[in-house]
Amino acid sequence: MAKKSYADIALDMYEAVKESNNRQKRLKSSTFWDAFCVGRRTPPVVERIGCILSEQGLRFSVKSGEVFGKEDFNDWIELTIWPPAEPPEPPLPDPIFPSIDWFQKMQTREFESEREVEYYFIIPLLEKLGYNEDDIAIGYPVSMFEGVQRTTKEADFVLFNGASREKSDILLIIEAKKSRKGITVDYIGQGKSYARELLPACYVITNGQQIIVFQFNGMIYQDERIMDFDRSNLNVMWKDLYKYVGKESTIKRKLWMREQFQRELRT
């Protein structure tokens, strides 16, 4: 049997925490590192595993307060999905369901390139989710740091609330990948890095076949993977997709986030 990757092991941990009663799980340090088949906890290995846990949507800490990776093997590592309990959600409108023919076309179409994923899948999807032409910025420049160097990259899609291009009006980020290329941890990390600069309500990574949705939870808390499904189930998952990334939903969440962050700054 093939050895599991760090990403697969992190996903198993995420699912175990998700199924727990309080969305938290505690593992003995020795058990945790054995799960990753790590004997010698070198800084690059510890950093890589920490990044993968974060990208998977897990917040981690050491019970004793010791630095992660330097704790005693008898210490405990605590894993949490943020938030431990779902925040109260504002009332949302009922989703508008596209026609059966639209779902059939979207679920069966083949994409030959990343550009086709963008134009034949993402843009029609955004239209049905309530966004219009004024909201959509394609190839949006994002200024960010790589190490100590500031660089500018392009997010595939950034969705705004109207024609304004103010950061406060950013609602959603979407990263598109080639249809035949699986969504890797690096791709998820790319979406997350854009989110930390642009502060959207949610961000999405898709290759036209798999659709992954994260709620952005700010600079303090770990982002939460809230949807991960195959395009063949688009009609089944539509209600939840609309609930999380429909335009009205992202506007309401962005306002809620602003209130939460301001409250945290006051405390």
User: What order do the SSEs take from the amino end to the carboxyl end, as H and E?
Assistant: HEHHEEHHEEEHEEEHH
Helicity level, as a percent range? 25-40%
Query: Could you tell me the strand content as a percent range?
Result: 15-25%
Number of helices: 8
Number of domains: 2
Please outline the helices and strands.
Layout: H1 6-19, E1 24-28, H2 29-35, H3 43-56, E2 59-62, E3 76-80, H4 100-108, H5 114-128, E4 136-146, E5 149-160, E6 170-176, H6 185-198, E7 202-206, E8 210-215, E9 224-230, H7 234-245, H8 247-266
Parallel strand pairs: 6-7
Antiparallel strand pairs: 1-3, 2-3, 4-5, 5-6, 7-8, 8-9
Helix pairs in contact: 1-3, 3-6, 7-8
Give descriptors for this structure:
3-stranded antiparallel β-sheet, 2 domains, 6-stranded mixed β-sheet, 8 helices, 9 strands, Phenylalanyl-tRNA Synthetase, Chain B, domain 1, 23% strand, 267 residues, globular, alpha+beta, tt1808, chain A, single chain
Could you describe the 3D structure shown?
By secondary structure, the protein is an alpha+beta fold. It folds into 2 domains: 6-80, Phenylalanyl-tRNA Synthetase, Chain B, domain 1, CATH 3.30.56; 100-266, tt1808, chain A, CATH 3.90.1570. It has helices spanning 6-19, 29-35, 43-56, 100-108, 114-128, 185-198, 234-245, 247-266, and strands at 24-28, 59-62, 76-80, 136-146, 149-160, 170-176, 202-206, 210-215, 224-230. The longest helix is centred in the last third of the chain and has 20 residues, at 247-266.
